[in-house]
Amino acid sequence: xxxxxxxxxxxxxxxxxxxxxxxxxxxxxxxxxxxxxxxxxxxxxxxxxxxxxxxxxxxxxxxxxxxxxxxxxxxxxxxxxxxxxxxxxxxxxxxxxxxxxxxxxxxxxxxxxxxxxxxxxxxxxxxxxxxxxxxxxxxxxxxxxxxxxxxxxxxxxxxxxxxxxxxxxxxxxxxxxxxxxxxxxxxxxxxxxxxxxxxxxxxxxxxxxxxxxxxxxxxxxxxxxxxxxxxxxxxxxxxxxxxxxxxxxxxxx
Length: 253
Hints:
Elements: H1 4-7, E1 15-17, E2 23-28, E3 31-37, H2 43-55, E4 61-62, E5 65-66, E6 71-74, E7 96-98, E8 104-109, E9 112-117, E10 120-126, E11 132-136, E12 142-145, E13 158-161, E14 174-180, H3 182-187, E15 199-205, E16 218-220, H4 225-238, E17 251-252
Antiparallel strand pairs: 1-16, 2-3, 2-15, 3-14, 4-15, 5-6, 6-13, 7-11, 8-9, 9-10, 10-11, 12-13, 12-14, 16-17
């Protein structure tokens, strides 16, 4: 994410607050990670993650698979691939449909669109009824649900992107994006498993924290003129190669 010093050039009115009920606060051995969850894209996954956080299932779990330039995985109660919670597996939420006004389109191409639902990137198409059919775009910071070979086996495992991997689009449920603390994700010990794994010490829904302990963060409003101006500048710079993965997200406290 863009440093606060860079965000300082923007006006306070360019930022929006995070919804505490859909913000996940993860205290790790490398620092705090804050995720804006995207229930419009994956309601069942977000519901499950909030349930597991409130049950304390995630507290103390290892980042058991961390690969440079790819992913950091965690969330399995047995601290290795294949573990599950006591709850049933979830159906895949690889695609979603939302009203056009629920998303911000960043670019339109002959074969589709790319944009954002909140801070979470997506690719998709416009439907004849005016809605958008989309799927999460696996850009740096995007949060996904792990699964086994069967698409309907997402349960408790989650992962965070340490680099872009658009080959995962359509294949794994996207449930949000890191809006603060991507540096901590990048600093996690690497390995499958790491020799000394880093941990999720505490995982909480922001709404459950005392007000004084909630992250006092705001993110650049994707509907603001400032975001539109930054987006157009980036598209001019990147040209035809532009994608939503090129867009970083300023924050302010």
